[in-house]
Automatic annotation (TrEMBL):
Keywords: Membrane, Transmembrane, Transmembrane helix. Residues 293-314 are annotated as: Disordered. Pfam families: PD40. SUPFAM superfamilies: Tricorn protease N-terminal domain. The chain crosses the membrane at residues 7-26. InterPro entries: 6-blade_b-propeller_TolB-like, WD40. It comes from the Bacteria. This is WD40-like Beta Propeller Repeat.
Length: 314
């Protein structure tokens, strides 16, 4: 009798486990999205084989391998920014390409590629590199250099360090500031960035014409301006050495929204549309993957592409 009862229990357990596995399989994140308006045409840097090719996500979730190789990548309005290896050492450069893949301009970089953006008009390209160190994890333990190129007039500014910074209307010029994560408004003049000094970071709003920046708030890094120019997404620490999380700030009201499930990201998020942000995150012990989150803070992140980084809208 006991043996029969044990057998029945074992069979029931197998059935329950099997049903649970099927449910989990149907609901687990896929290696790429099923394809929708925001993700079809998404471009990214392939990270699975070390070649760093710029690939594209098809509407059905398939990946199309490209020939361009970049450490960091972004594209807008037919202009592509590619931060890439330039020679032994290693040395690096910014390569700006048009929609046909023709290189329009190269600029030598003084360090390891970290961030890049192209303005919505395609006329201004910005970049950030590590001059010393290779991570933002240790406050004060690295040095960055951020610059930009204006394709309309050929202006190249290799560093923002000579800009005048205003802290509550008090000017501080030519100090040892780090800048990173530059993002431009649609006038190609106004920008947002991170200013770092010691262990403190600030979200700043700047003007390339006046060469001035003004602090807006502390503890905000790698900003990304929304397509409508009304919101800024950035990563924010939960404490001095806490994990970064993604937040969205409404510029008019000052309302700040935390995006759940973004703990541990280290990226400058990209707006795929007015409602969706994409970013790379490295799950513990795994390769980097690109996730998407709703900009209004609803829902949980979903995996768009595994073994990938540097997402850029089509």
């Amino acid at each position: 009798m006991n043996r029969r009862l044990t057998g029945v229990i074992a069979i029931a357990a197998v059935i329950v486990f099997g049903v649970a596995y099927v449910v989990w399989t149907l609901n687990k994140p896929s290696s790429a999205s099923s394809g929708n308006a925001s993700t079809a045409g998404l471009k990214f840097v392939e990270q699975s084989d070390g070649r760093n090719t710029v690939d594209e996500l098809a509407p059905d979730g398939a990946r199309t391998t490209g020939s361009l190789k970049c450490q960091r990548f972004y594209t807008a309005a037919g202009t592509t920014s590619c931060l890439r290896l330039a020679g032994p050492g290693p040395t690096y450069e910014l390569a700006v390409l048009d929609s046909a893949g023709t290189v329009l301009k190269t600029v030598g970089l003084p360090g390891v590629p970290s961030r890049t953006r192209v303005s919505d008009s395609g006329k201004v390209v910005s970049w950030t590199v590590f001059v010393t160190g290779d991570s933002y994890l240790a406050p004060g333990g690295f040095s960055t250099r951020t610059g930009y190129l204006n394709l309309a007039d050929g202006t190249v500014v290799e560093s923002l360090e000579h800009f005048t910074a205003y802290f509550d209307d008090t000017a501080r010029a030519h100090e040892n500031f780090n800048y990173w994560g530059m993002t431009f408004a649609d006038d190609d003049r106004t920008f947002y960035a991170t200013l770092g000094s010691g262990t403190q970071t600030w979200l700043v709003k700047g003007d390339v014409k006046t060469q001035e920046v003004r602090t807006m708030r502390t503890n905000a890094e790698c900003p990304s301006l929304s397509p409508d120019g009304k919101r800024v997404a950035y990563k924010k620490r939960g404490g001095t050495l806490g994990a970064w999380q993604l937040f969205v700030l409404e510029l008019d009201s000052g309302k700040e929204t935390r995006l759940p499930g973004t703990d541990g990201l280290d990226d400058q998020a990209a707006w795929l549309d007015e409602a969706t942000l994409a970013y790379a995150k490295v799950p513990q012990g795994q390769a980097p993957a690109i996730y998407a989150s709703a900009a209004d803070g609803t829902g949980e992140p979903r995996v768009l592409v595994e073994s990938a980084s540097s997402p850029s809208p089509r």
